[in-house]
Amino acid sequence: MFLSIDGLSAGYGGTRVLEDVSFSLERGEIVSLIGPSGSGKSTVLRCLVGLVPPEAGRIALDGSAVDYTSRAAVRGVRDRLAIVFQQYNLFQNMTALDNVAIAPLKVKGWPKAEVMADAKRLLDTVGLGDKHGAYPDQLSGGQQQRVAIARALALKPDVLLLDEITSALDPELVTEVLDTIRGLAANGMTMLVVSHEMAFVREVSSRVLFMDRGRVIETGPPAELFDAPRTERARDFVTKILRH
Fold first, then answer.
1. Which residues contact 189 (CB under 8 A, 6 or more apart)?
2. What is the pLDDT along the chain (244 residues), one digit of tens a residue?
3. Cα(218)–Cα(231) distance, rounded to whole angstroms?
């Protein structure tokens, strides 16, 4: 398995949020985490990049366990796993192009000509070829989120982690962001997705994990989990959410 999570438990301030979570992700797969708010989906992503320290369990990349008590190990993980949050967190005094290029230039020290060319290509890829010189306040929410996706891709990650990236957007802007993710999926990008956009999850996912109260309750192919969930809790959730 390329990325494996075994018995992961974690929490905030003494409150346990994840309990014995286990699953894996192969290269080229798109695995989606669904479930009610507060079920621990986003915490899984935050644990993977070291923002929430695991309290128990094992996370491994390419078969090698990650030591989250080591700053060097966490930096290594962040070189390979890039996370995009629901809030764009762009630098307001920088153009879209500079927002995408800043980490490869300042953090990685990669050659400027190479970085700028790649940043332009990535903005083109996410449909913002005409917005290289635009500042965040000149962009819609959907456009800003696509800049954030391009910024994550600029570090050439092995896996893209998407944490409810459409939840802060007006409904009419959601489609343009989801279309960007569809394009990445078509090109074989490995992704771990947290989303409430059930039609999208069903369309792009290799597998879907249903979480509740910090645990993985059920996992399976999208058609199986949405059409014939095995557990009563997943069946209740799917029935309610697909009704609206």
1. 30, 160
2. 799 999 999 998 888 999 999 999 999 999 999 999 999 999 999 999 999 999 999 999 999 999 999 999 999 999 999 999 988 899 999 999 999 999 999 999 999 999 999 999 999 999 999 999 999 999 999 999 999 999 999 999 999 999 999 988 888 888 889 999 999 999 999 999 999 899 899 999 999 999 999 999 999 999 999 999 999 999 999 998 876 5
3. 7
Which DSSP symbol is given to 137?
G
Q: Which of 33, 29, 31, 81 is nearest to 60 (CA)?
A: 81
The two tokens of residue 219 are 């996992």
What is the dihedral sign for C-alpha 213, 214, 220, 222?
positive
* 155 in Cβ contact with 106 (< 8 Å): no
φ, ψ of residue 97 in degrees (nearest 5): -60, -45
CB atoms within 10 A of CB 111: 11
Instruction: Identify the CA nearest to 221 among candidates 206, 231, 233, 211.
Output: 206
Token output for 63: 């078969």
Q: Is this model's pTM higher than 0.70 or not?
A: yes
β-bridge pairing 190-194 and 30-34: parallel
